[in-house]
Specification:
Elements: H1 2-14, H2 24-41, H3 45-52, H4 59-65, H5 74-81, H6 84-96, H7 98-108, H8 112-123, E1 132-133, H9 134-144, H10 149-166, E2 174-175, H11 188-194, H12 210-223, E3 233-236, H13 244-247, H14 257-262, E4 278-283, E5 289-294, H15 296-304, H16 308-328
Antiparallel strand pairs: 1-2, 3-5, 4-5
Helix pairs in contact: 2-3, 5-16, 6-8, 6-16, 7-12, 8-16, 9-10, 10-11, 15-16
Length: about 325
């Protein structure tokens, strides 16, 4: 009997446990996921089982995703990103990488201050890139967060394909609680679709390679149809009230010049005859709402993160950094970038 018990113990110890901290139902879902990866992408089952035996369920990730910063009102969200330190950090980042930013702007048509602001909002120019193993984050959310489990399982699939393409160990990648990676916080599907090897060294590195980071952000915006030279947003200060029915039309520009005229809304930068806009209300600290007219390029920023608060923070930080750079430059400075 003792010999049989020892044999059974050895068998159990030699069998891969699919994830540490996952319950039985979640382990079965991981088994099904592995089978899918083997069937659809020809991954080796044994290697995936060995990989997932090292994956850890992270309860703190579930806690974090249930309290996103975007749930704050605008007057509390804005001060997180519109700070002197973040503006100064953006100015410094621009000065240090001016040539690369100028090349990205020329090749992709995306302004340097927008690229810098994205990196500033996402990770404070690389200081806060996240400390979770990406595979832990995506597995925790994919198998223990029903509201968006399907999405995160899709990202886990993209992540394993990405690691294979980049010829790196999946356990090496660190990122946010939601599995976003590097200075620009690309999720795996975005990495595979939009990350570029901007310095042509044979690798796409969004953690430390500033050329790849800058080029990839620029490529993302270009692929989402950024229109260089066009306005982003303007605050409405002269109006007789903004009809709720126009606010309810959402972030995608759909309001014509005629509709705005009927509502007695006159943009400082006039719309072209065939151009559309959107209207946005934000909670101000006076207990009132401030109203913004947003254009196509504002909508493009929301393709990076769908929160209008995020897009407005990027826009305002970008403008603050550009103003600071203009003020700091001497008349005989090189004007490129």
């Amino acid at each position: 009997m003792k010999r049989c018990y020892l044999a059974l113990s050895c068998l159990l110890l030699s069998s891969p446990l699919l994830g540490q901290g996952f319950d039985g139902k979640q382990e079965r879902e991981i088994e099904a996921f592995i089978a899918q990866m083997v069937s659809e992408h020809r991954f080796a089952q044994t290697k995936l089982e060995q990989l997932f035996s090292r994956v850890k369920h992270q309860p703190s990730i579930i806690e974090a995703i249930n309290r996103p910063a975007e749930a704050k009102p605008w007057y509390r969200y804005r001060p997180i990103f519109l700070t002197e330190r973040r503006i100064h950090g953006g100015l410094k980042f621009w000065q240090e990488h001016a040539d690369t930013l100028a090349r990205a702007e020329k090749e992709y048509g995306v302004p340097a201050h927008i690229i810098v602001a994205i990196i500033g909002v996402e990770t404070f120019y690389g200081r806060n890139q996240g400390s979770y193993r990406v595979i832990d984050a995506l597995s925790t959310l994919g198998f223990d967060y029903p509201p968006r489990g399907q999405f995160f399982r899709g990202q886990l699939e993209e992540f394993l394909l990405m690691a294979q393409e980049e010829k790196r160990d999946p356990m090496e990648f660190l990122g946010s609680y939601a599995g976003a990676m590097g200075m620009p916080q690309f999720i795996p599907s975005s990495f595979r679709s939009y990350a570029v090897d901007f310095d042509a060294d044979g690798h796409r590195d969004l953690w430390e390679n500033h050329a790849d980071i800058i080029g990839s952000v620029a490529n993302y915006f270009a692929r989402h149809h950024w229109r260089n030279g066009e306005p982003v947003a303007e605050r409405l200060t002269q109006h007789k009230g903004v009809p709720q029915v126009l606010l309810d039309k959402g972030l995608k520009p759909s309001l014509s010049l005629e509709e705005l005229k009927r509502a007695e809304i006159a943009p400082l930068t006039p719309l072209k005859e065939d151009e559309t806009a959107a209207l946005l209300a934000l909670d101000s600290d006076e207990g009132k709402e401030e109203y913004w007219l947003t254009r196509h390029n504002f909508y493009v920023i929301t393709r990076y993160n769908r929160s209008p608060l995020y897009a407005m923070a990027v826009y305002q930080l970008a403008e603050a950094i550009r103003t600071s750079r203009t003020a700091s430059r001497q008349p005989d400075d090189d004007t490129s970038g």
